[in-house]
Amino acid sequence: MKRRQKICAYRKKYPISFAKKIIKGIIFFVFSIAFLFSATIGSANVNSDSEKGKEAEQKKGQEDKKEEKGKEKEDKKEEPPKIGNFTLPTSQQPGPLVSFGQNIIDKDQKQLFLFADDFSGIKKHTVDIIPAILYGVTDNVSVFFNVPIAASYKEGKSRSSGLEDIFLQLEYAFYTNKTSKLIDQATLVANATFPTGSTKKQPPTGFGSSSFFLGGTFCRMYTDWFGFTSYGVVLTTPRDSTKFGNEFLYQAGFGRNILYINSELIFAWMIEADGLYSEKNKIKGITDPNSGGNIVYVTPSLWISSKKIIAQLGFGLPATQHLFGNQKRNNYLLVANFGWTF
To answer: Domain span at residue 287?
Structure first.
């Protein structure tokens, strides 16, 4: 009964309509607080997510920069530093003087050459002057056009001079490997000779018919040292029952940079061994026993080049010579080459 009275008393003191208002107010207050709290949490989450996104972007940017730097380093490692033998462009870097090939230059680049040699022996000599032009078709293919001139040929009492067999040469670099320390390159060389010389002159200034050459070269170059080797064959063709013997070339050499001036000058020395084996000639269908043989010249030389100019001078001696039949022996070789790049 007391409990019942208390409830009744409460109802009297606070009418039901007023109580409902209080309950509604409490509910509204609770929902307001809950809404504000959820909004605050959501805002915090958004801010947190945006900060995490920025951090992720920053990390990605740093990783991208690291990858770019790594790629730049790798790119730099693909080529040797521009010092020593590499301080000048490819066309101005050291190469063989007597040996064939290794005439690869940049695309659309041109070089003019004036080559001269003097093969001297007992009561004989041959002096050649060869103007030539080299053109880079691509970075891996070159065309070389030569016009040899017999300045003075002597064999005993016989003398001759005049135009020799001109030739057009193609060279293709089928393999090139570059690292941070060296460059390797292998090439194929082919040329065709046109019979512009004479077989009627004595000594003759040409083969009297077309001939063809096929060979290959390999070169390795460091900043200081370089080495090369080459092998080839000259295939002659007959005319009027006359055919000069085929020729086989085997060559190798090495050299070293003496000094250089950055992007201005290269000064180097080299030594090359140039072997030539010649088959016997056939004149009017009869084999000439006093023709052909094998000879190897060892030729030290000096190289100097700038951005536009190349100069090379060498002196060679026969290390061995085995000449068939009765032939006068060879004594020495003088050779020079001058080039202009444009």
So the answer is: 84-341
Distance CA 304, CA 302 (A): 7
Q: What 3-state DSSP class applies to 16?
A: helix
66 versus 192: which is more confidently predicted?
Answer: 192
Q: Name the phi and psi angles at 59, rounded to 5.
A: -65, -40
Count of Cβ atoms closer than 10 Å to residue 22 Cβ = 10
- In whole angstroms, give the CA distance from residue 194 to residue 165: 6
Q: What is the pLDDT of residues 286-311, one digit of tens each?
A: 999 999 999 999 999 999 999 999 99
* Tokens encoding 38: 């959820």
* DSSP result, 22-63: HHHHHHHHHHHHHHHHHHHHHHHHHHHHHHHHHHHHHHHHHH
- Which helix (H) or strand (E) segment holds residue 323: the answer is strand 309-323
Same-domain status, 38 and 140: no
263 and 87 Cβ atoms separated by less than 8 Å: yes
Q: Check residue 32 and give its pLDDT.
A: 60
In a domain, 68, yes or no: no
97, 142, 291, 323 from 134: Cα distances, Å:
15, 7, 33, 34
Q: In this structure, are 102 and 189 located in the same domain?
A: yes
How many structural domains compose the chain?
A: 2
Phi, psi of 88 (to 5 degrees): -115, 165
Q: Please check whether residues 198 and 53 belong to one and the same domain.
A: no
Q: CA 270, CA 95: separation in Å to the nearest integer?
A: 9
How far apart, in whole angstroms, are the C-alpha atoms of residue 49 and residue 54?
A: 9
Q: Three-state DSSP class for 327?
A: coil
Parallel/antiparallel/unpaired status of strands 247-261 and 265-278? antiparallel
Question: Closest Cα to residue 310, out of 339, 334, 289, 287?
Answer: 339
pTM of the model: 0.77
CB 194 within 8 A of CB 167: yes
Residue-wise pLDDT tens digits, 38-90: 455 455 444 555 555 556 666 666 666 666 655 555 445 589 999 999 999 99
Residue 333 CA to residue 299 CA, distance in Å, equals 8
